[in-house]
Amino acid sequence: LRQRGGQLLQAEAQACCHKVRGVAANLGLEQLAATLAQAERLCGSPQREAGAPTLPTELAQVQRLLTAQLDAALSAIHAIETPRAVRKEREQAAEAAAAAPAFDAARAHAAAQALLPSLKRGALEDAALAALAGAMSGAGLSAALARQLAELHTALNDFDFPQAHATLLELADHLAKETP
């Protein structure tokens, strides 16, 4: 049983090395793939010739080499400069967020009131929902209001119009309290 358990562990280690070697090869990490192939061979060869280094010694050497190669690969990946287009896109998104209007509770309350009748009759007016979502965007939206809006969207996604109506009533009440 002990020998059989060791064979199972070796087979699992060999399969793991094989899978990770495939990933490394797909990513173009050739040295890492070669070292993983060596580890895979070692895991599949339990019998050693007389005078050859012991299997644990060889595996320990391969493990140290793998560790160094993985560290080098990760460092190289982290050192890759973000492409200019991605940086520009991030900058534009940050500028748009900074330029977004502040949350206006009165406008959001009016949008909620406009959406209530359609939800009460079990229908959805996309334009009214879009107006509410737009009115509730911007800086200054509280976490509680954001949560209520998310709950409204969840109810609508589930086609649970009674729940959506109840959630929107709570949201409108909350907005009324924030309206100056």
The helix count comes to: 8
Note the gap between the termini.
Answer: 77 Å
Strand coverage percent: under 5%
Please state the CA-atom Rg, rounded to the nearest Å: 30 Å
| Alpha-beta content class | mainly alpha
Number of domains: 2
Q: Identify low-pLDDT runs.
A: none
Main sheet properties: none
Per DSSP E runs of 2 or more residues, the count of β-strands stands at 0
**Element string (H = helix, E = strand):** HHHHHHHH
Overall pLDDT confidence: 82
**Helix content range of the residues, please?**
over 70%
Q: In one word, what is the shape? A: elongated
Spell out the key features of this protein.
180 residues; mainly alpha; single chain; 2 domains
How would you briefly describe this protein structure?
By secondary structure, the protein is an all-alpha fold. 77% of the residues lie in helices and 0% in strands.
Notes on the protein architecture:
- The protein has 180 residues and is mainly alpha-helical.
- The protein folds into two domains: 2-45 and 57-79, no CATH class; 105-178, no CATH class.
- It is built from eight helices and no strands.
- It has helices at 2-26, 30-43, 55-79, 84-99, 105-120, 126-135, 143-157, 161-178.
- Helix 2 runs antiparallel to helix 3, helix 5 (105-120) runs antiparallel to helix 6 (126-135) and helix 7 packs antiparallel against helix 8.
